[in-house]
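Hey, resending since the last one bounced:
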Amino acid sequence: MRYVIVGNSVAAIGAIEAIRNRDKTGLVTVISDEPYFVYSRPLISYLLAGKVDEERMLYRKKNFYEENSVGTKLGQTAIKLYETS
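The structure tokens again:
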């Protein structure tokens, strides 16, 4: 099975974890126009105020995608999705 997740947010992480609970070998790819590893968007104001550092912004460990065999296309916009055989 192949999975494509558009967007790199908390919902994407939840989707990856749910997929991996049921399918350990399917191909999973995350596409996001943001070039950044998944981070906690609600903490942005705290980062700007100097109350948290960049490390605290991370929603999962830096090797999360690797540990879960997830391909990423960060900094790329999904324009059109279609199935190929």
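The chain is about 30% helix and 20% strand.

Sorry for the duplicate.
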